[in-house]
Design brief:
Distance between the termini: 87 Å
Keywords: Leucine-rich repeat, Membrane, Repeat, Signal, Transmembrane, Transmembrane helix
Strand content: 25-35%
Shape: elongated
Pfam families: LRR_1, Malectin_like
Membrane topology: Single-pass membrane protein
Helix content: 10-25%
Subcellular location: Membrane
Largest sheet: 15 strands, mixed
Radius of gyration: 36 Å
Protein name: Malectin-like domain-containing protein
Number of helices: 8
């Protein structure tokens, strides 16, 4: 008998450069567990490597707690402030004594963005208010993970105990883009907050692989039949997946005749993949002092479906044969498991688990009863998870483009450009962004981007051309510098307003797209030839304004372009002429050097160039022509094109 063997190799500090697609370096626990039950074989002996990071939100230093867990100082947040809670002595654990608050001045949406390996994760957070800001009420806010709202902290969630002492909430979620994104969204003008954040990588096949089906599991009750809570970070009896198990006293309706059974004997098939339910869970059990119904009442949101996991192990030495303890499991008045006989199924001191999904619920309380046939019912633990469908995300190409635009335009923190630009859908999208469903309805796309009068001082990143579904772009009345990216205007774009900035350089050919109906580039520093195709947008019923750009040329109402220009770039002829000019210059230099050397040899130290070389050459005629550009009058009628300096 190997019993409960657990070997851990811990690397407290690791550079994540060796992990692909990760861009952060921080302290983690990287553990290799080897777990076994009563014998060694490929089905019982199993191993798991998990990536774990624990963030002390608001904390200023790293620490290791009494359970040998490494916590790192607060980082990976997009904004907010650190808060020291006023009455820290009443909190048992160090990570509960500080928090990060996100004032509304930093935008309605703020996030933690943590680089992690792709996989399935157990995410646990601690929330506490404790009236740290002397306001009249605890803040109302939503919490999302990977773009899906998982928690709503409002007046109902903030019970008196939660306000004073805090509460933990947890979720199982897949992470598929190498970044765990946990966001907090202000309701009204309240300041969201969080006290601690944990991410523990778990077996991707856990809980019947339901997490492969775009489902998140939100904990609505996880408890042990024992007399006290236990689990990761809460007791020496741990759970390698990070789960914490509450006592069932808050859920049971049969406390008067409650009996807790305990054993130190090993439990067969505990700690096995893929769920790794801990042995300690099965070494405790809740039964009754006489034959009676054991009932639990679980608070739920009836709009969702729920996955129930029942955990049993027959640890009563008085039970030595089948049919000595038999009971039904009744959920919301319906028998879901009939004649449950633990001993008959697995014998004693062995794991026996059952799983049931409750659907189409109507009440805010889920009733679970163990109704006896023979003997008093018994249970080691119960888990209740809401099956939360993953919300529709934004097109990854749009997300990539918007993050590049955020960096290049120097988007201020107050605009709240954090997390997913469009999701969750019941939150406001990023300020200035309009999103819609794509054709498949399984993805969100950006259709409008309006950032006028925001004081932006950056440049336009070329990634903006990746917004293939964009219909309208307005960046007017800012201080944006640099050029207009080639490719902008292609696709579905119909309106481009870049007016009154500090843009320079040529107008790209892509802004002559036949889809465009409005192009406003006035009030900039653009130069070069304007294409006939761009001009024709105004002729065919659209609207074009290029006024207040001193160096544009080539269409009616603008000066004729010199030979230097062809389209928006230097012409081939001008390039050839310049090349010949350079060659001629080099030749002149060589001739001059030869003459100087000859005269030096003849003791003639005059350095004047020969008269014929100084007064002839095509380069001279070319330069005269270049210095006197030819202007053409505007013979075309005025057709919704504005090219003068009057503005619009």
């Amino acid at each position: 008998m190997w019993g409960d063997l657990s070997i851990a190799l811990v690397c407290s500090a690791i550079s994540l450069d060796c992990l692909s697609k990760l861009h952060h370096c921080y302290l983690i626990d990287l553990k290799l567990y080897i777990l076994s039950a009563d014998k060694i074989d490929s089905h019982v002996l199993s191993s798991i490597i998990d990536f774990t990071i624990r963030i002390d939100c608001g904390g200023s230093s790293n620490f290791t707690n009494e359970f040998n867990q490494t916590w790192i100082a607060d980082q990976f947040y997009t904004g907010g402030i650190k808060v020291q809670l006023p009455d820290q002595q009443k909190f048992k654990f160090s990570q509960e004594k500080t928090l990060r608050s996100f004032p509304i001045t930093g935008g309605k949406k703020n996030c933690y963005e943590v680089g992690v390996p792709n996989g399935v994760y157990y995410v646990r957070m601690f929330f506490v208010y404790d009236n740290y800001d002397n306001e009249t009420h605890a803040p109302s806010f939503d919490v999302s993970i990977e773009g899906t709202v998982v928690f709503s902290w409002g007046s109902e969630a903030w019970t008196e105990d939660n306000i004073k002492f805090g509460a933990y909430s947890d979720v199982f979620t897949p992470i598929e883009d190498s970044v765990a994104t946990i966001c907090f969204y202000s309701i009204g003008t309240d300041s969201p907050l969080v006290g601690a954040l944990e991410l523990v990588q778990v077996d991707p096949n856990c809980y019947n692989k339901v997490l492969h089906e775009n489902i998140l599991l939100v904990n609505y009750g996880r408890f042990t039949g024992g007399s006290s809570s236990f689990g990761a970070g809460m007791s020496k009896e741990t759970d390698i997946t990070g789960r914490a198990w509450d006592t069932d006293l808050d859920f049971t309706q049969s406390a008067a005749n409650r009996v807790v059974l305990t054993t130190d004997q090993g439990i067969k098939n505990a700690n096995r993949a893929p769920n790794y339910f801990p042995m300690y869970l099965y070494q405790r059990a809740h039964t009754l002092s006489y034959e009676d119904t054991l009932e639990f009442l679980l608070p739920i949101d009836p709009k969702l479906d729920y996955m129930l996991w029942f955990h049993f192990a027959e640890i009563d030495p008085k039970i030595s044969a089948s049919r000595q303890r038999v009971f039904d499991i009744v959920v919301s008045g319906k028998i879901v498991f009939h004649n449950v006989d633990i001993y008959k199924e697995v014998g004693n001191y062995a794991v026996y688990d059952l799983q049931f999904t409750a659907r189409n619920l109507t009440n805010a309380t889920l009733s679970v009863k163990l109704v006896p046939h023979t003997g008093a019912p018994l249970i080691s633990g119960l888990e209740n998870y809401a099956l939360l469908p993953k919300e529709v995300p934004t097109d990854p190409i749009d997300v990539k483009a918007m993050r590049a635009i955020k960096r290049s335009l120097l988007i201020p923190e107050r605009m709240g450009w954090n997390g997913d630009p469009c999701a969750p859908q019941n939150w406001d999208a990023w300020e200035g962004v309009t999103c819609n469903h794509g054709e498949s309805k399984e993805i969100l796309i950006l259709t409008h981007l309006v950032l006028s009068n925001q004081g932006l001082q950056g440049s336009i990143d070329s990634e903006i051309t990746g917004l293939k579904h964009l219909l309208s772009l307005n960046l007017s009345n800012n201080l944006i510098k640099g050029g207009i990216p080639e490719g902008l205007g292609k696709g579905l774009l119909r309106v481009v307003d870049l007016s009154f900035n500090q843009l320079s350089g040529p107008i790209p050919r892509s802004l002559s797209s036949s889809n465009l109906r409005t192009v406003l580039l006035n009030g900039n520093r653009l130069s070069g030839e304007v294409s006939e195709a761009l001009y024709s947008i105004g002729v065919t019923g659209g609207y074009v304004n290029l006024s207040d750009n001193d160096a544009l040329c080539g269409v009616p109402s603008l000066p004729a372009c010199s030979l230097l220009w062809e389209g928006s770039h230097m012409s081939i002829g001008s390039k050839v002429a310049i090349a010949f000019g350079v060659i001629a210059g080099v030749a002149l230099t060589l001739v001059a050097a030869y003459i100087i050397i000859k005269r030096k040899n003849s003791e003639d130290y005059k350095f004047g160039l020969p008269h014929k070389l100084a007064s002839s050459g095509r380069g001279t005629r070319y330069n005269r022509q270049k210095s006197r550009p030819k202007y053409e009058g505007d013979s075309s009628p005025y057709v919704r094109n504005i090219f003068n300096r009057s503005g619009y």
